[in-house]
């Protein structure tokens, strides 16, 4: 029997309201009498089944596309990172592994429907989740400059279900909801629990990962619950590298202490990754309840960086590309008359001029004495994430607001990233330099206050018209904390051309440190009108006022119509926006990256910095979007099918500009402003509203359940076609950056999953298809090529020893499908080892290959 549209929509809203104001449409509970409430509760049960292993994942009677992925489905994977779990479940969701990508290696940004990570709003129990403090400075692709939420801190064992709203929703939730919304609902059981131990490694024999996780539901008095979850994880680093050509040549020439693998491309080491989530609810009266939830998470991450060649690295070994050695006069009066050492072969240490003039001369110094084989810094950080939400919700029982539902809450969230760089030098300090540094810390603090009201009113239509409204206040603070003195100080060798600060990631100076805040408030209203039993229409309007750039008003119109008992059509039209983050508007940093295949230092400046303004920078404005979707849902028997087309036009997109070469006059101005290593800087960049895009695509979801093979079988197919076109850009963006935005992600992605359940055994297998994409290495246009499509297979088998104990074995990328191999040559004509890599780092399924694991679970 068909579920009538308004009844189901009310059921959806009631279900989501029980997890604080819900994802769907109005974000607040509905009014109903006891008889209607009973009807709603029956429908809630039907909806709650969606997302389990034996039922469809998408809500069929929604006017906008929503996927629901159950917690058990998320846990069926060899992956232990929430980002990877979602990538396997939602084809329009992509995430890269980002080897050697500065802070993006610590908090990996993700993409929904081809847009950057900060274009997707993340909710926890229906409440806005704070951003990470990490801004993705390197990468050159879609997420270059993005500052999204850190999804990886959320453990799958704490999750009841994940709801993915694949539609623009800024009129309902405000900034960031251009691509869609992801709502993570925490478990809320008051009894029972689970303990799980998992261990695995990659087929290559590295990346050993151990995870212990648990969940327990406890009664909180007779009228409430306290559901607690934890996860502890460690993961070793991986390497998919070969020796660099220049390092191999140095070794062959007899240079000592050259590492056998000078530069490593792979996943970073993750140590002491611990996270705790709590979810508490308490019924205060028959018509009101209290809720509280939050988390504490911390992890240490350490990964590779670029190799410093002992004959060419600027600011340390040479300042003219390797023609002469950089030699320091260490006498107080500069009287040593240190020689000019011309580098004529592959081992300057054998040169008599070096031996006599430097090695045996106590008044002259070169870093070849201290680090003859060069060095490779390690970059890492300590990431801490905390949040707390407290609120109350219920129904007014008298007065003007009788039978109106309310939800009042406050949220605070803090993410801190303290950076470390190891095995490097502050060259300006000479032989007295430390080797390890703490360059400083970024903090992202957000506070939210929400008050929502919702009431059903009889206007003589098929069902009550639901009218909702609300108010939100939001404060965002980005803090830069200065590093240890050695990480930024200008030592005694500065005037002789030696680089200032910890090489690779100079520390934040006290003059750069500070707090940068912004406040905004919003008011919204939305109306859902069931004109007939088969036709539902909704309208939402939201006004926001920011103390930085002013006001914005956004709308959304959506509708759904049942053509037959089995077929309905749906669609929406909406506007949206994404406010520039406070971090993007104020951060400054010095990066070491490859440009044109050459390792160079470049400065990221605030867009209002005088040099940035001189080069085209302006104060950041919000991105603006227009989007529409059109889809259909077909249900017959056990077959469930949805097909949705989307089109998202984003104007004034915010990203990091192309790196712009500096003139000497520019360098003099920067030096006067206190920017470190100015003479060693080749380029600068800044955040800018510099291009427009149109992203369109198709999402297809199909599910079928049957009794086969002596058990219960579920077949699931999900397919996404996504295409992005940059419709306007300037020279500040750069042609290769445009190409990366359009081509780095595969246009076609699909998953096909078979789940099988018998009495004591369950199994699943998933085929993942990745279409052609642009292979890029080290952000260098000469490396770009069209990489081939590929298929990977995931599989898991579980044996249930009894009702409480089960054992699982499985594999991710079962047949060890390799990423696309590098096939360009370096200056010597030797392929594949220009910078030590084997595979294109833009591979949509990573570069590490197959991963196998075993898992034991105790349920009580």
TrEMBL record:
It comes from Pseudoalteromonas distincta. Residues 1-31 form the signal peptide. It is found in: Cell outer membrane. Its main location: membrane. Keywords: Cell outer membrane, Membrane, Receptor, Signal, TonB box, Transmembrane, Transmembrane beta strand, Transport. This is TonB-dependent receptor. It is a multi-pass membrane protein. The lineage of its organism: Bacteria, Pseudomonadati, Pseudomonadota, Gammaproteobacteria, Alteromonadales. InterPro entries: Beta-barrel_TonB, Beta-barrel_TonB_sf, Plug_dom, Plug_dom_sf, TonB-dep_rcpt-like. One of its GO terms (cellular component) is cell outer membrane. PANTHER family: PTHR47234, SECRETIN_TONB SHORT N-TERMINAL DOMAIN-CONTAINING PROTEIN.
């Amino acid at each position: 029997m068909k579920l009538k549209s308004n009844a189901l929509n009310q059921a959806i809203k009631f279900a989501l309201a029980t997890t604080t104001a819900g994802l769907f449409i109005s974000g607040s509970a509905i009014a109903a009498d006891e008889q209607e409430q009973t009807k709603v509760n029956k429908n809630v049960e039907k909806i709650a089944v969606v997302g389990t292993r034996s039922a469809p994942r998408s809500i069929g009677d929604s006017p906008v596309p929503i996927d629901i992925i159950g917690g058990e489905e998320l846990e069926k994977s060899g992956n232990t990172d929430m980002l990877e779990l979602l990538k396997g479940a939602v084809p329009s969701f992509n995430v890269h592994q980002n080897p050697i990508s500065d802070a993006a290696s610590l908090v990996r940004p993700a993409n929904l429907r081809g847009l950057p990570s900060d274009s997707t709003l993340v909710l926890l129990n229906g409440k806005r989740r704070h951003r990470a403090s990490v801004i993705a400075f390197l990468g050159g692709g879609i997420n270059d400059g993005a500052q999204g939420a850190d999804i990886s801190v959320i453990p799958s064992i704490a999750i009841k279900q994940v709801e993915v709203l694949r539609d623009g929703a800024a009129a309902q939730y405000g900034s960031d909801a251009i691509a869609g919304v992801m709502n993570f609902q925490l478990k809320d059981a008051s009894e029972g629990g689970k303990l799980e131990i998992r261990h695995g490694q990659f087929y290559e024999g590295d990346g050993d990962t151990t995870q212990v996780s648990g969940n327990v539901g406890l009664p909180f008095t007779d009228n409430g619950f306290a559901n607690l979850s934890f996860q502890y994880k460690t993961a070793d680093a991986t390497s998919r590298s070969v020796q660099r050509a220049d390092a191999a040549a140095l070794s062959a020439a007899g240079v000592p202490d050259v590492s056998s693998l000078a530069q490593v491309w792979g996943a970073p080491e993750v140590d002491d990754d611990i996270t705790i989530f709590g979810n508490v609810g308490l019924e205060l009266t028959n018509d009101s309840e209290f809720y509280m939830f939050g988390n504490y998470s911390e992890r240490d991450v350490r990964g590779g960086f670029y190799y410093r060649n002992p004959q060419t690295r600027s600011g340390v070994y040479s300042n003219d590309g390797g023609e002469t050695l950089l030699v320091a006069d260490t006498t107080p009066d500069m009287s040593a008359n240190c020689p000019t050492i011309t580098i004529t072969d592959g081992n300057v240490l054998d040169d008599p001029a070096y031996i006599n003039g430097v090695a045996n001369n106590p008044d002259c110094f070169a870093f070849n004495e201290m680090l003859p084989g060069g060095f490779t810094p390690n970059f890492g950080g300590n990431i801490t994430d905390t949040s707390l939400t407290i609120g109350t919700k219920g129904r007014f029982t008298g007065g003007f607001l009788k039978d109106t539902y309310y939800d009042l809450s406050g949220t605070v969230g803090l993410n801190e990233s303290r950076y470390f760089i190891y095995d490097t030098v502050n060259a300006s300090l000479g032989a007295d330099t430390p080797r390890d540094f703490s360059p400083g810390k970024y903090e992202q603090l957000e506070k939210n206050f929400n008050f929502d009201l919702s009431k059903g009113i009889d206007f003589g239509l098929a069902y009550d018209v639901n009218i909702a409204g609300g108010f939100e206040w939001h404060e965002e603070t980005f803090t830069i904390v200065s590093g240890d003195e050695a990480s930024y100080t200008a030592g005694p060798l500065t005037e002789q051309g030696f680089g200032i600060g910890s090489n690779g990631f100079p520390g934040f100076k006290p003059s750069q440190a500070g707090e940068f805040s912004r406040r905004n408030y919003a008011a919204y209203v939305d109306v859902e009108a069931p004109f007939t039993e088969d036709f539902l229409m909704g309208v939402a309007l939201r006004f926001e006022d920011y103390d930085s750039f002013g006001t914005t008003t956004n709308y959304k119109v959506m509708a759904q119509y049942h053509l037959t008992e089995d077929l309905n059509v749906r669609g929406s039209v909406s506007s949206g926006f994404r406010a520039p983050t406070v971090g993007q508007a104020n951060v400054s940093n010095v990066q070491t990256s490859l440009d044109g295949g050459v390792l160079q230092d470049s400065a990221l400046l605030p867009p209002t910095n005088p040099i940035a303004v001189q080069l085209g920078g302006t104060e950041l404005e919000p991105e603006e979007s227009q989007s529409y979707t059109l889809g259909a849902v077909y249900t017959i028997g056990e077959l469930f099918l949805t097909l949705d087309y989307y089109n998202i036009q984003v104007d004034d997109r915010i990203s990091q500009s192309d790196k712009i070469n500096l003139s000497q006059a520019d360098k003099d101005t920067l030096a006067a402003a206190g920017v470190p290593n100015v003479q060693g800087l080749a380029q600068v960049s800044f955040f800018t509203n510099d291009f427009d895009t149109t992203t369109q695509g198709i999402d297809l979801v199909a599910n079928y359940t049957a009794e086969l093979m002596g058990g219960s079988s579920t077949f699931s197919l999900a397919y996404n076609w996504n295409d992005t076109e940059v419709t306007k850009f300037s020279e500040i963006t750069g042609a290769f950056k445009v190409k990366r935005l359009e081509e780095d992600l595969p246009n076609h992605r699909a998953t096909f999953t078979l789940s099988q359940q018998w009495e004591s055994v369950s199994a699943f297998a998933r085929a993942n298809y990745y279409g052609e994409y642009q292979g890029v290495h080290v952000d260098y246009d000469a490396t770009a090529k069209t990489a081939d499509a590929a298929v990977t297979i995931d599989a898991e088998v579980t044996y249930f020893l009894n009702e409480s104990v089960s054992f699982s074995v499985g594999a991710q990328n079962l047949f060890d499908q390799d990423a696309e191999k590098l096939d360009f040559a370096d200056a010597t004509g030797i392929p594949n080892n220009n910078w030590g890599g084997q595979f294109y780092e833009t591979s949509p399924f990573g570069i590490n290959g197959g991963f196998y694991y075993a898992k034991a679970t105790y349920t009580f």
